[in-house]
Each structure stands twice: as C-alpha cells, then as structure tokens.
Amino acid sequence: MQKILSASEIAVLDQIHLTKKDFSNHAFMEFVAQRFVDWFQSQGYSNKVKILVCVGAGNNGGDGLAIARILFSQGYQVSVATFFSPEARLSPDCKQNLTLLPAQLQLLSSESLSLAKEEGVLIDAYLGLGCFGPLREEAKERIQLINSFGGTVISLDLPSGMPADSILSGIAVKADLTVTLGFPKLALLLPEHAECTGKLVVLDIGFSEDEKDDFSSSTYFLEENDMLSLHRRFHRFTHKGDYGKVLLVAGRKGKIGAGILAAKAAFRTGSGLVTCLIPEEECKAIMASVPEAMCIFDEDQDFSAYDAIGIGPGLGLDQGELLKKILSASRKPIVLDADALNCLAVDRTIWDLIPQGSILTPHLKEFERLFGPSQNHLERLEKAKSICLKYAITIVIKGANTLCSFADGRQVFNSSGTKYMATAGMGDVLTGMITSFLGQGYCPENAVLCGVFHHGMAGELAGEKYLRGTMAQDLIEMIPETYRQIGLD
Fold first, then answer.
1. Quick one: three-class SS letters along the chain?
2. Is 222 within the bounds of a domain?
3. What is the tens place of the pLDDT at every residue in 267-310?
4. How large is the average pLDDT for residues 102-126?
5. Which of 230, 258, 397, 485 has the greatest count of CB atoms below 10 A from its CB?
6. Based on the structure, what is the number of domains in the chain?
7. Which domain holds residue 367?
8. Both 154 and 234 in a single domain?
9. Is pLDDT above 90 for 417?
C-alpha cells in the first residue's frame, strides 16, 4: 500500500528521487510529462481534438508546458494559455520549458480568453502543490475562466486552487478528471472535494517504496497490486469447512432482502457454509433465493460454533437484546452493520460487549448517529481513529474511497468503486463479503481490506454493464470475476 504524504513531504521525496535516479529537475519534468502523454493517448483522444493547456509560473506550469510540447510534436492540435503576467518570475524549469516551445505552437494570454463556448480538452496545469493560503483575485478569475470551459477539464496533480492536505475554503477548478502524480493527495480523497476532483487517476511516475521509508505516515492508499499478498491460498484437498462456517443475523419482516443479499454475497465470496438466523416465517424467502443457505430460528444458539458472524442488515431497531446476547457469547471478531450500529447508537452499554477486532461498517449517516456530527471528513477520520484505538476495533466508513480505520491508528483509503454503487443493498453485500473473509480464516485487517476492495471492483465491473441501473445483486454476480482480475484462483 502506498503511503499518503503531505505536500511538504512530497517536495522532499522529489529531491530524494532525483538524487537516486541521478535526474535533473528538468529531466524529471520531461519524464512526468511523457508519462502523462502516454496516459492521455491510452484514453483514445483523437489528434483532431482541440487541446488547451493552461499553465502557471511554477513547476506545475512547467509540467504543462512540457506536456503541450510533446503533444504538439505528436500531431495534436495544441495551444497554451499563459496564466501569468509578462513580468512574472517563473520557476527555472518552467522558464526553460517555455523557451523550448515550438514557434508554431500558439501562445495565448488568459486576459484575452473566452472559454464558455469552447469544446475539446483543457489541461489544468495552473496551480499545483505549492498552492497555500487564500488565492489572489487574479487567481480566482483564472480559475473561474477554466470552470467556464465547455469541454473536458483534466487537472494535473491537483485541481488548481485545491490545497493538498486540508479542506478547500474557497474556489478551485472543477475537473472532470484529476491525474495525480505518484499517489493521491489527501484532499483528493475527501467527499467535500468530489465536485472538483472528478474521476481520480493515479499516474505512476517511478517512486519506489524504499524512497518513502524515511517518511512516517498513518494514512495509506489501497490498490489492486496490493491484493494478492492479502489473500489466503487453499489447496485441492480443502473442504467446505475450510472455507468457513458463517452466521448472518440479517433480515426481519419486510427486510428479508437484506439477509438474502448478505447470504448470496458470502457464498460468492467463497464461504463454505452460510447460516441465516431469521424469523421462521421468512424461511421460504431465503430458501427460494439462496437454497444453499441454512436457516435457524431459535435465538438460543451456541454462537461460538461459527467461524464468523455478521449482524445488522435489515435487523430492526428492536433487536438490541439479541445483539447483546450474540456479542456476549462471542470471543471472535464480529461484523456489525446497519441496525446493529443503530442499536449501538441508542444503547451505549452495548459498546463494552464488542469483542476486540470487531468491524463496524457505517455509512456517513450511521457514523453521525454513532459519534455525532462532524464539520468535515478530516474531523470524521480523527473521530474514527480515536474510537478504534479506544475499543481495539476497525471502523469502515463507506462511500467513495471507503476509509478503513484500524486499531493501531492506521487509516487506509480504498481505490476501487464507482458512482453506480449508490443504490440500495450495497452495504448488505459488503457485510456478507467481510464476514465471509473472516470465516475463511483471514485476520480482521485482511478481511476488511479484501472485502472493501473486491466489493468496489465488483461494483466497477457491474457498473460497466448496467451503468446507473446497477443493482446490488448485479454486484454479487461479479464477485468471482474480481478474483480472476487480480490473478487469484
């Protein structure tokens, strides 16, 4: 997993990287520009599309100038808008790249631009990591100019005006895509900035993990190449007991669908045996939808007999006593979601019964019910961290770039997922998946990371097919394909 570093740390990392690779600043800028152009071409943009590169006076502008030159040399219709005055002091590499522009490449001044009716692609290379504090008036005007553009806006590293490490308090470019360099900056992962970040693309520019060893960070970014090392392997003589015996306490009258989704998801994730504790009158619904599942109806069970328990989806707010009974009887980590979390919110005595290593999976509203309102997502993350440390549990804050907060203080943002997952039942599926991984013998941390990532990837695969018509059951059917995608049998 990649560490997420602050803007000041990234500046130091850049110099470490240059020293190790024996690069000059200019050579590194050229490398980054070529990597961006390679990505741009991989997206299928025709060389007939008009491209406007808006550049500032700093190194972000220098990157933009190098990108414009390379695109122009490869036959693209490129022009450059200089978002600085003629007397502005340019960074040395920005100045050098300005002198390297071909004479045929059109240079425009921001003062003479009108972009509202323009189409094509605008590459925002105006302000980058060096953007701190309130913006000057001319900077605000230039950002508003970019935001008036009628085509696709691609921001380089950060949307201009957005701080790397904190909450935006003013105006910033509203990008359709942000192509961030090396690894995401914290601000790009916050829901407050969704309108500005757009789709996030992380561009590998050659940083190695050993170059980051001198930087301490408790915040990480989970990617597809992290997944294989987190998974257990099973040999050909394994039997269904090896793949886990899980119990799902999910679904009451009128909400049995939540239990069905969780049970299906557990099986598709790989569980060997799935049992549902439900009201007896709902048995036919489970049997018709998930015939592989077993049903029990008596709440006086030996709950310690199961390898993992997930509780909460569709449970109902009147099941606090059942929740207490299960928590008191279990010494293994339990997955708590939905109404189990709502029971926790109204009865604080339940907290002391939660086994260490247990996993809470609130969405934003459930998190607020549990811990009170937060001014922003950064405050929400701090609350999650303190609760995890206090109770030795994991909290999964669901949403775009789902955040996994662990008992040792580490917090991991997920990279998989899509806007098409914003439909009913997705959380029930995640409960079934994480419970399944726990039952298969994964440690709580790996169960969470695998559950969250495969859940998001399955959502991406389903979303490609069904777009905004994606349903939770579509995601479930894509879970096995996610194993194929990462190279796991």
1. CEECCCHHHHHHHHHHHHHHHCCCHHHHHHHHHHHHHHHHHHCCCCCCCEEEEEECCCHHHHHHHHHHHHHHHCCCEEEEEECCCCCCCCCHHHHHHHHCCCCCCEEEEHHHCCCCCCCCEEEEECCCCCCCCCCCHHHHHHHHHHHCCCCEEEEECCCCCCCCCCCCCCCCCCCCEEEEECCCCHHHHCHHHHHHHCEEEEECCCCCHHHHCCCCCCEEEECHHHCHHHCCCCCCCCCCCCCCEEEEECCCCCCHHHHHHHHHHHHHHCCCEEEEECCHHHHHHHHHHCCCCEEECCCCCCHHHCCEEEECCCCCCCCHHHHHHHHHHCCCCEEECCHHHHHHHHCHHHHHHCCCCCEECCCHHHHHHHHCCCCCHHHHHHHHHHHHHHHCCEEEECCCCCEEECCCCCEEEECCCCHHHCCCCHHHHHHHHHHHHHHCCCCHHHHHHHHHHHHHHHHHHHHHHHHHHCCHHHHHHHHHHHHHHHCCC
2. no
3. 999 999 999 999 999 999 999 999 999 999 999 999 999 999 99
4. 90
5. 258
6. 2
7. 228-486
8. no
9. yes
For residue 299, give the CATH number of its domain: 3.40.1190.20
Look at residue 253 in the predicted model and tell me its pLDDT.
86
Domain contains 34: yes
Over residues 315-319, the mean pLDDT reads: 92
Residue 210 is predicted with a pLDDT of: 85
Select from 217, 242, 257 the last residue of a domain: 217
| High-pLDDT (> 70) share of the chain, % | 100
Q: Are residues 307 and 348 in the same domain?
A: yes
**Looking at the structure, do residues 359 and 472 belong to the same domain, yes or no?**
yes
CB 488 within 8 A of CB 231: yes
Full strand arrangement of the beta sheet holding 294-296: 2-3, 219-222, 411-414, 403-405, 394-397, 359-360, 334-336, 308-311, 245-249, 273-277, 294-296
d(CA 242, CA 338): 28
CATH number of the domain within which 181 lies = 3.40.50.10260
Q: What percent of the chain stands above pLDDT 90?
A: 90
Rounded Cα–Cα distance for residues 289 and 275 (Å): 14
What is residue 226's predicted lDDT score, i.e. its pLDDT?
A: 97
Taking CA 428 as the corner, what is the angle to CA 454 and CA 430, rounded to the nearest 5 degrees? Answer: 20
| Residue 402 pLDDT > 80 | yes
- pLDDT at position 158: 97
Q: How many CB atoms lie within 10 A of CB 82?
A: 21
Q: Is the pTM of this model over 0.85?
A: yes
Query: Is the C-alpha dihedral spanning 131, 134, 138, 142 positive or negative?
Result: positive
More confident residue, 110 or 154: 154
Give bridge partners of residue 310 from the DSSP assignment.
248, 335
